[in-house]
Amino acid sequence: VLTAIELLERLLGRYGPQGWWPAQSAFEVMVGAVLVQRTSWLNAARALERLDEAGLLHWEQIAACDPAILEGLIRPAGFFRTKARRLIGVADYVRGHGGTEAMSRLMTGELRRQLLGLFGVGAETADAILLYAFERPVFVDDAYARRLLGRLHGRKTHAHDVATFVRDLVDAGETRKLAELHALVVEHSKQHCRSSPACEQCVLRARCVYPATDTRPAPS
DNA sequence: CACCAGGGTGGTT
DNA sequence: AACCACCATGGT
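Output (structure tokens, whole complex):
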């Protein structure tokens, strides 16, 4: 079957570099990672912009911010009460641990453990922060990746299967490639590998077992 | 109108 | 361990 590096090359050729997270600071990436949870990036970006205008894209400001003010600013990102609490918790952690500078000195495994201890930061958000904020060689295993790999391989895919798929890139410390791969997997999953798939123009069609097992009704 | 978007938590079976 | 309701706005 297809290797991770082959998948990257193929998707890169079709969609080009995605340019995710060209953020100004690691903390801004952390805020974005929370704001985008179960939300379109467009709406998360609106909330980020409002925080920036209010001068709140710093941990000292958010940690000390009145929750009601924060809620109002991030409203476009949805789940605003939940996310406001989460942002304050994240900011408070960063403030109490010497800022993102000090955090960047931790080993990846230890930093991941710390992030997972924060309320509102699960495996996916932690890995997105590790990858895009702290530039660690980690692959973000989300619903898109599992669905795409599941179809490529023709079987149900779990976290272990995804880890095996990207092991070479992770072990080689290929942060840039892992970041681009994740972004491309999301884009490809939106355009073709959707819950209701559009395989006709898919660039992976020849290397995917899904069309063979596709039981959808034939187009009229 | 329904459905989805770059999830996580807490509770129930 | 697998499911579930909940959180909430904006686009299609």
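The first helix of chain A runs from residue 4 to 15.
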